[in-house]
């Protein structure tokens, strides 16, 4: 799977569900390990259970984001880092 296709990744205990526009792939991985393998300039952790890809963001609010029509929570512990991430992305040409 191409990383550009990933909209968001959902942690499910010892598994992760990788959501793309066309499919959901469940794999025996931990979210923390997968996060370390993703490019930090294109993916951001927003919650203990979620990582989002920048290209999939539709709406960004204070405590939630919408990706592919689905609302995902942005936890207080990731909010400041995520906001800086989004602001940096919006400033790129």
Please describe what this structure looks like.
With 93 residues, the chain is α+β, with helices and mostly antiparallel strands. The protein has helices at 31-37, 76-91, and strands at residues 6-12, 15-20, 24-27, 43-47, 50-53, 57-60, 64-67, 70-73. The chain has a five-stranded antiparallel β-sheet.
Summarize the structure.
The protein is built from two helices and eight strands. With 93 residues, it is α+β, with helices and mostly antiparallel strands.
What order do the helices and strands come in, and which of them pair?
Layout: E1 6-12, E2 15-20, E3 24-27, H1 31-37, E4 43-47, E5 50-53, E6 57-60, E7 64-67, E8 70-73, H2 76-91
Antiparallel strand pairs: 1-2, 1-5, 2-3, 4-5, 6-7, 7-8
* Percent of residues in β-strands: 35-45%
Strand tally is: 8
What is the 3D form? globular
Q: What's the helix count?
A: 2
Q: What is the succession of H and E elements? A: EEEHEEEEEH
Structural class: alpha+beta
The multimeric state of the shown protein is single chain
Share of helix among residues? 10-25%
In round numbers, the mean pLDDT is 91
What is the radius of gyration?
12 Å
Describe the structure using short key phrases.
93 residues; alpha+beta; five-stranded antiparallel beta sheet; three-stranded antiparallel beta sheet; 2 helices; 25% helix; 41% strand
């Amino acid at each position: 799977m191409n990383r550009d296709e990933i909209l968001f990744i959902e942690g499910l205990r010892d598994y992760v569900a990788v959501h793309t526009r066309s499919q959901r792939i469940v794999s025996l991985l931990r979210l923390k390990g997968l996060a370390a393998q993703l490019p930090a300039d294109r993916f951001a952790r927003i919650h203990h259970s979620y990582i989002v890809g920048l290209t999939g963001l539709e709406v960004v609010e204070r405590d939630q984001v919408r990706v592919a029509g689905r609302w995902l929570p942005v936890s207080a512990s990731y909010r400041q880092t995520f906001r800086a991430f989004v602001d940096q992305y919006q400033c790129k040409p």
